[in-house]
Amino acid sequence: MTTASRGRRAPDQRRAAVVAAARDLFLAQGVDATSVDAIARRAGVAKGTVYLSFPTKPHLVRAIEDEFDALILTRLRTATATAPSDAATAAATWCTALVEASLENLEVHDFLFYGKGARVAERTVDATLSAVLAGMLRDRGVADAEEVAVFLIGGVTALTDLAILRRDYGRAGLPGMVERFVTATVGT
Questions:
Q1: 3-state helix/strand/coil string of 37-69
Q2: 107: Cα separation from own chain's centroid
Q3: Which of 2, 16, 136, 167 is the most buried (most CB within 10 A)?
Q4: Are 179 and 96 in contact (CB under 8 A)?
Q5: What is the pTM of this model?
Q6: Is residue 120 packed enough to be buried (19+ CB in 10 Å), middle (13-18) or exposed (0-12)?
Q7: What is the distance between the alpha carbons of residues 65 and 80, in angstroms, rounded to a whole number?
Q8: Residues contacting residue 161 through CB under 8 Å, at least 6 positions apart
Q9: Confidence of residue 59 (pLDDT cuts 50, 70, 90)
Q10: What is the pLDDT of residues 91-137, one digit of tens each?
């Protein structure tokens, strides 16, 4: 990429290129082994451009986490908007979307949850996930919607993590299992 073409990109495009480059390099070789010079080269920006938005590599990890969380939340908001009217099926649809979104972004999921230096910053998305699910459950008449949401998210997350770590559930099998468990929980 030439210097002239670098300057033509808007700041948000340069920032996105830096995050994408950092994500690719961190996944391939780890945070510690990745230099800011390599990120800048991969993104097609000057090293100073990286530092303008991301003073440290943990800031880049946080940006990757924010991007991952935004993808998950978008998927879940779509599931919420199109969820059936009964609480058990709606919750199962929502939780299945959570599992599928995590599996579709498995490499980033593993990097964030299990990689060296995982979760460098305090997470706020868990509270957002709970609020979105609780709102959907409340709208469908579920008592103790906040508590049910926290219980479901904790269980679904743990079940997904177990399946990923064991590598013994197929991508087709895990969502079906989650759907059965969630439907049984909310339906009772």
A1: HHHHHHHCCCHHHHHHHCCCHHHHHHHHHHHHH
A2: 11
A3: 136
A4: yes
A5: 0.78
A6: middle
A7: 22
A8: 113
A9: very high
A10: 998 998 888 888 888 888 888 877 765 554 445 567 788 888 999 99
- CA dist 154 to 86, 107, 159, 178, Å? 21, 21, 9, 12
In one-letter notation, the amino acid at residue 89 is: T
Please name the residue ranges forming H helices in the chain.
3-7, 11-29, 36-43, 47-53, 57-81, 87-104, 106-114, 125-139, 145-166, 173-187
The amino acid that residue 151 corresponds to is F
Q: Which residues contact 39 (CB under 8 A, 6 or more apart)?
A: 18, 21, 22, 25, 50, 60
Q: Which amino acid is residue 4, in one-letter code? A: A
- Three-class SS of residue 120? coil
